[in-house]
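Hi there,

I know you've been waiting on this one. I reran it after we fixed the sequence typo, so this is the corrected version. Both the input and the resulting structure follow.
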Amino acid sequence: MSGPVRALACAVLITAVGNGLYLAGAVLFLTRSVGLSGTEVGIGLTIAGVTGLGAGPVVGHLADRFGAREIYLITLTAEALATGSLVLVHSFAMFVVVAAAVGIAEQSSRAVRGALIARIGGNERARLRGYLRSVTNIGVASGAAGAGLAIRFDTRTAYSVLILVDAASFLLTALVAARIPRQPPLPGPGRTVRAGRLNLPFLAVTGVYGVLSLQYGVLTVALPLWIVTHTAAPAWLISPLLLTNTLLVVGLQVRAGRRVDSIADGITITRQAAVLLTLGCLLFCVSGTGSPVFAMLVSTLAVIVHTLGEIGHAAGEFELSFALAPDHAQGRYQGIFAMGTGAFIAGAPALLSVICIDWGPPGWILLGGIFLSAGVCTGPIARWAQRRATHLIDV
């Protein structure tokens, strides 16, 4: 592992630990200390997610023009300031403003990090991204565990310290990332296509993977609600199931990445992932019948199958998002890809609550059909994007 890769991996780990602290404690801080309602927190976080979506392509373009490392350091500093400002929140209006700033900084940082991975990862960039996903899961789990101390004290001071530590983690990440050598912008081709500045094939690929990205909400939103309201399984099962998902991703994501060396490989593993995600939906559907023991066993099997699909989906996504983007414009393209998938992820909680919880078993079957259809469409759309990749270079 080269020096720049080690520095980036360390930076990602630090950020992930901070994010774990934030995810575990921020909502409790806002509800128990600030006094916001759960609905207000949900609305604010949704606004933050939507506001941040448009930042990726813009800041990604700046990374292409001025250098990914330099812009990455700026976005990390912005994340630190925005996150730290949460401790000053005392009203819903102020929370919306601060949350929007956090969302913009977060999405910007994610887009620039994608461009940085593309540069320092070279031909192994998709595998590097898979490795960093494993590192991220380790960090988030560690941060969430560490947040337990603040949650135990359950005071404004404890929650404020937790958030400030998260903010400080971005500054520490910037110090580590500064060790990565500067990555000069790559010159674009001499001929620029003015007609059709939108790369429609790449946008179509983004849309397909956006649909598949709904799967990230299955375990975090649909599963807990499904177990509590539609199965005989005990509520305590939710925690070990989520831990199972984390451990499988940490252990298998890098291995899955080794199977993907080309666009064709990315298409194949995505199709396989779609089948697994569909099977997982059917198993979740079946878990709503039978005894508590039956529900526990089927739910566990469903999480394992779903996680294998999640891993394959991520491996295919990493390969195609990089391979179908021109090297000189990775920042813009990664920003657009993140914006597309981020839109579906942001909408997943509301959508899955209706489809899987309100509609019940028919909803799970419908969701499985959506995943399967997206997997079938991946091949034709990706090959279309591959044919056009050398002609449509501007976004």
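Quick highlight: Residues 131 and 254 are 5 Å apart (CA to CA).

Best,
R. S.
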